[in-house]
Design brief:
- By secondary structure, the chain is α+β, with helices and mostly antiparallel strands.
- The chain has one domain: Nuclear Transport Factor 2, Chain: A, CATH 3.10.450.
- About 35% of the residues lie in helices and about 40% in strands.
- It contains four helices and six strands.
- It has a six-stranded mixed β-sheet with strand order 2-1-6-5-4-3.
- Helix 3 crosses helix 4.
- The protein starts with a helix and ends with a helix.
Amino acid sequence: MTFKEAVEARDFDAAIECLAPDVTFNSPVAHKPFEGKEAVAGVLRAVSETFEDFHYTDQLEDGNTHALVFRARVGDKELEGLDLLRMNDDGLIENFTVMVRPASGLMALGQAMAPKVATLK
């Protein structure tokens, strides 16, 4: 199962299995990246509890780089984002970067996520 398929199925255990042990996660709101499968798994679980009406709208691939465009809501704020996934030679995600717009949606996401990920670093 691909990461996208796992997320769409709301199977976060399967999504976490798509992560390399040394994965790096670049958050749109945190200054420093989250490093390692355990920390990134915690971020993904927190995001799954925060986003409402999450769905992917587009997918682009070029070799080991995958871009997944999504839409979601945090409270009354609609947002659009991009999951940029870079895969290692084993097909596992080694670098995961998320970008979110507009700023009001990003701020709502940051406020909702901060207490959930404060202990993960």
